[in-house]
From TrEMBL:
Its cofactor is Mg(2+); Mn(2+); Ca(2+); pyridoxal 5'-phosphate. CDD domains: Thr-dehyd. The keyword Magnesium applies. This is Pyridoxal-phosphate dependent enzyme. It comes from the Bacteria. It comes from Spirosoma liriopis. The lineage of its organism: Bacteria, Pseudomonadati, Bacteroidota, Cytophagia, Cytophagales. Belongs to the ACC deaminase/D-cysteine desulfhydrase family. The keyword Transferase does not apply.
Length: 315
């Protein structure tokens, strides 16, 4: 069980290594939606994404408990950077299995943090097989991208800060996060349940990787009917662990098309003057698509990351 105390301990553990990221608002976007939006800017986080939180919380504990002499994981990019960054903080080698199709900007960052990259085909089976091979060769400890309580507790600290900074005097009506493997969404829904129980948590998911909405409805881990989305960070299936937490604490999952994701991403670039990646734009795209659901509300949105390949912008 991930208790409130667990999340607070995670926050204390990682605090020396992370930024307490700003929360921004924008009148133009508020007017367009008809709601008051508060953007938690994890695109300004270390490694450029919220993933630094969970990666650090897990790796720092692996080092503290002397669980192994190296770290491994599989990731399309942001978790890879987080684990590589965290491993460097504790002086441990990191072996990162990445799909060959992962954005080059994310591969470059992983190498810059000193980790070794093992490329694989862009399937979950290939990623998991690559990690098994690394563990067999090196004895590395796996820090899973989302199916790990320590990672989930770390990810929860983003919404914890959002609620502490802007949701205590007047509660949020809704907090939104994107969903891929469900680590961030699980952590966000848990800490919201503990600190702001009247606040709904809703997820945004790409239509081109829509496994979570099927799993949410059926109660078992489902695969997406097809995988084809610009949101490269959200292509992973839920796990039994994350599905259980999401079904318990999340109110709904809303899907959006790539066109809607790109429009939301462009809106943030143009109006807020900040860089976000496609996966990051999914919750805002859901709000723009379903304005009636959020009209008149105070809405928190986790902006998850800003690691964009500037040579391949979709607009």
């Amino acid at each position: 069980m991930i208790s409130l105390a667990t999340i607070r301990e995670a926050h204390d553990r990682i605090r020396p290594y992370i930024h307490r990221t700003p929360v921004l608002t924008n009148h133009t976007i508020n007017d367009r939606v008809g709601a008051e939006l508060f953007f938690k800017c994890e695109n300004f986080q270390k490694v450029g994404a919220f993933k630094a939180r969970g990666g650090l919380n897990a790796v720092l504990q692996v080092a503290e408990h002397q669980e192994g002499k190296a770290i491994t994981t599989h990731s399309s990019g942001n978790h890879a950077q987080a684990v590589a960054f965290a491993a460097r903080q504790v002086g441990m080698p990191a072996y990162i299995v990445m799909p060959r199709t992962a954005p080059q900007v994310k591969k470059n960052a992983v190498r810059n943090y000193g980790a070794d990259i093992i490329e694989c085909e862009p399937t979950l089976d290939a990623r998991e097989a690559g990690v098994r091979d690394v563990i067999e060769r090196t004895g590395a400890v796996l820090v899973h991208p989302f199916d790990d309580d320590r990672v989930i507790a770390g990810q929860a600290t983003a919404a914890k800060e959002l609620i502490e900074d802007f949701g205590t005097e007047k509660s949020f009506d809704t907090i939104l996060a994107p969903v891929g493997g469900g680590g961030l969404l699980s952590g966000t829904s848990l800490i919201t349940h503990y600190l702001s129980p009247t606040t709904r948590v809703i997820a945004g998911e790409p239509e081109g990787a829509a496994d979570a909405i099927l799993s949410f409805r059926s109660g078992r881990v489902e695969k997406a009917p097809y995988i084809n989305t610009i949101a490269d960070g959200l292509m992973t299936n839920l796990s039994e662990r994350t599905l259980r937490l999401i079904r318990e604490h999340v109110a709904d999952i809303l899907t959006v098309s790539d066109e809607e994701i790109i429009a939301a991403m462009r809106l943030v670039w143009e109006r807020m003057k900040i860089i976000i990646e496609p996966s990051c734009a999914v919750p805002l795209a859901a709000v723009l698509k379903h304005k009636d659901q959020f009209a008149g509300q105070r809405v928190g949105i986790i902006l998850t990351g800003g690691n964009v390949d500037l040579g391949k912008l979709p607009f």
